[in-house]
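Minutes, project check-in
Item: structure for the 121-residue chain
Input as provided by the requester:
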Amino acid sequence: MPEYLIYFNQQWVGDHTEEWFRSRVEPSVAVVHDMEAAGVLVYAGGLVEGAPAFSADATSGTLTFSEGPYTETTEVLGGLTIVDVPDEATARMWAGRIAEGCGWPQEVRLFSPRPDRPRNP
């Protein structure tokens, strides 16, 4: 089945009180449990805001590591979910459930098929 990435940038979350964020935990976790029960969840998790980031680059022929994201940007990934679902309509449904649970927008992208694992129609 096709795999879809459902994700959000931290900047999309907005400014909210700690109480508001705590109120989003239960509905967000419920969606993850629903995806597990439906057998479509590959992975779901949020990133630690403000935690160190680093980049790995081998384009010069020599592997180098640098502190911080690869490019300077004002948007950083906040969290992601990967689902293995039969079609785009199902991916949209889960993205909508996640957006409702979290309380902020989600973007959905289709993964390219892995060359070692052909996609079944």
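Outcome recorded: Residues 3-110 form a domain with the Alpha-Beta Plaits fold (CATH 3.30.70.1060).
No further action items on this chain.
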